[in-house]
């Protein structure tokens, strides 16, 4: 309770500010469309229920979320569940690819000196490059050689999320200190044993924080990958069509859905971490 | 016919691998820089040989030489895009967003109650796909640079807020006690101890934000832009299959991203010279 109180207070402040902003931003439009005999109160109230408000009030977004989530069958292109599924599956596939590749690369970097010296600088430098700029080209080029649908989006999601996994994992595999490695040597453990019993377990507490970042990035990658080709489905497509047709409610609903998906993804990573902690008897 | 490129690729990989292996044994700084540079050169050469040797259509993947030529040919276009995206959108947005985040952190820091509420929400929002806000900002502020600045401001605000709050907390109890024993008040403690102590965190956020700002501005241009801008150029030229210009644009984005990061890292070294990570 003591932890929730400040968060709830801040959320309440946000809601008040939001409603005030909605009234202020929608007032012009409300005046334009109001009947001649509308009273001032009616005009102010109508800022809360416009069809294409400049800033929808929170309850309008909740309503829109409600109808687009539960109002249509989930296979319908008007259902937000359908669009979320399209985006989430691309993000999840990309995340899985990134996890495999990122961990393999990290193992290579830690064990093969040539790989470390050749790759590490590029991996760090690539963090500073706006990778998302490549997204439209990748989607179009892969589309041209016949790869459409899930895979191009998954590749971009994977490309984005693979860097934090690699850097986190490299740090983690290197985290055992010389004393622990010396201990392994006194046990006359060979390389594979040091890896399986010391480095790998030690890396897990570094892997999971980077996995959270990676999961969020995979989602961003999948959404942005849906923008350039005028994709028919997915949260990115919802954002794009919403912006073409001025459907502000649709944009905000898609945005909140994307935020919810990010929460689910981060929560899933946390669950996996908890499962691992339990399997190891309470430690990570 | 296809034997020649295959053979030269093979030779390149074997020779390059041996050279990398030898170089990576050196310990001095020269070797440490030469190895990744050689790796990059090998990759570029392999790309060039594969593209020209196997006759990959330039419409799918132009060779590096083609990209370089396009870069030189379209220099005026690239310059206009750089001005529109980087100078007009990225830099102001990054500066405003980071400054606002820092000021908000200093204000919030005075109220532990609000800080406990804002910190989890701030980290949560940092993990959200904020770029999605771009179409809304384009509607509010129009197609030109103000909407891009708005996206960048929102994207850079929260990482700075979260990092600066953590940084302001970083001053240890002993240092605070020392300040108190000097009779220093809130303002003096803030200016002489806690803000300087927070600088490593602030620079961390500034560096992170420099990449985020570039991404935000480019993606925001996908939703509408006047007739120039890096994101606008990328999305329209992709549609026209002018891939060499798109690649030139991406090269520029990469160089700009790396350069801003490097400049910030240099300033950080000068300003936080006392920090253990730099003295070491």
Task: Explain this structure.
- Chain A is mainly α and 284 residues long.
- Chain A folds into two domains: 4-54, no CATH class; 80-279, MetI-like fold.
- In chain A, 76% of the residues lie in helices and 0% in strands.
- Chain A is built from eleven helices and no strands.
- In chain A, helix 3 (58-70) crosses helix 11 and helix 9 runs antiparallel to helix 11 (248-279).
- Chain A is elongated, with a radius of gyration of 24 Å.
- Chain B folds into two domains: 3-56; 71-279, Orthogonal Bundle (MetI-like fold).
- Chain B has twelve helices and no strands.
- Chain B is flat and about 80 Å long.
- At the A-B interface, helix 1, helix 5, helix 6, helix 9 and helix 10 of A face helix 1, helix 2, helix 5, helix 6 and helix 9 of B.
Total tally of structural domains of chain A: 2
Radius of gyration of chain A: 24 Å
Mean pLDDT of chain A: 82
Gyration radius of chain B (Cα, Å) is: 24 Å
SSE pattern of chain A? HHHHHHHHHHH
CATH architectural label of the largest domain in chain A: Orthogonal Bundle
Question: What is the first-to-last residue Cα distance of chain A?
Answer: 27 Å
Note the main sheet of chain B. none
Major pleated sheet of chain A: none
Write the layout of secondary structure elements.
The complex is a heterodimer of chains A (284) and B (280).
Chain A: H1 4-33, H2 40-46, H3 58-70, H4 80-111, H5 113-127, H6 135-144, H7 150-173, H8 178-186, H9 191-225, H10 235-244, H11 248-279
Helix pairs in contact in A: 1-2, 3-11, 4-5, 4-7, 4-9, 4-10, 7-9, 9-11, 10-11
Chain B: H1 3-23, H2 29-53, H3 64-73, H4 75-108, H5 112-126, H6 134-141, H7 145-168, H8 173-181, H9 186-222, H10 230-239, H11 243-271, H12 276-279
Helix pairs in contact in B: 1-2, 3-11, 4-7, 4-9, 5-7, 6-7, 6-9, 7-9, 9-10, 9-11, 10-11
What descriptors fit this protein?
heterodimer; A: 284 residues; mainly alpha; MetI-like fold; elongated; B: 280 residues; 2 domains; 12 helices; 81% helix
